[in-house]
Write a structure and sequence with these properties.
Strand content: 5-15%
Structural class: alpha/beta
Shape: globular
Radius of gyration: 21 Å
C-alpha cells in the first residue's frame, strides 16, 4: 500500500516540476540572411498577396497526375488567391476514410510547393496519428494512452 501511495505522489508531482523545465517555448531565431529574405519578400508582396498568405485550403491526399482537373484547380486557387498554406486530409464517404499512401501525399505536397511563388505552410488532419489517414506508417497508441 505504501508503494502505491508513493507512486501516486510521484505521478501527481511530476507534471508540476516538469512544467517549469520542459514546457517553456523556445525563441524562434532567424539568422541575418533569413531576416533579410523575409523583410525583402514582405516589401515586394502586394496587399492582396499578403492577405492570401493568411488562408489555408483543404487538399485531399491522393494520386493526381499532371493533367488532373483537381491539381489544376489547386494550382489555380493557389495562384489566383495567393494561398499560403494547405491542410492535408483524405477522401471521406460518410464514416469511411479512404486512406492514401504516404508517397502519394508527399508527391502532391511537393508539387504544390514547387508551383508556389513562396514557401507554403502545410498542416495535416492527423488527430489520431498518421495511420488514421495514411497506409504504412508505424502505428502508435492514441494520445490518450500517453
Amino acid at each position: 500500500m505504501r508503494f502505491v501511495t508513493v507512486l501516486l505522489l510521484v505521478f501527481a508531482l511530476t507534471p508540476a516540476f516538469a512544467k517549469d523545465r520542459y514546457q517553456k517555448p523556445g525563441p524562434i531565431r532567424l539568422d541575418r540572411n533569413g531576416e533579410k529574405w523575409a523583410e525583402k519578400t514582405l516589401r515586394k508582396l502586394t496587399p492582396e498577396e499578403k492577405i492570401g498568405q493568411l488562408f489555408m485550403v483543404w487538399v485531399r491526399a491522393q494520386f493526381l497526375n499532371n493533367d488532373s482537373d483537381t491539381l489544376a484547380q489547386l494550382r489555380d486557387v493557389m495562384s489566383t488567391y495567393h494561398v499560403g498554406s494547405f491542410c492535408m486530409t483524405v477522401l471521406v464517404d460518410g464514416n469511411f476514410l479512404f486512406k492514401s499512401e504516404p508517397y502519394e501525399a508527399a508527391v502532391l505536397l511537393n508539387a504544390l510547393q514547387k508551383d508556389s511563388k513562396l514557401p507554403l505552410v502545410f498542416a495535416a488532419d492527423f488527430e489520431r496519428g498518421l495511420t488514421m489517414r495514411l497506409n504504412g506508417p508505424t502505428m502508435f497508441p492514441a494520445a490518450m494512452a500517453f
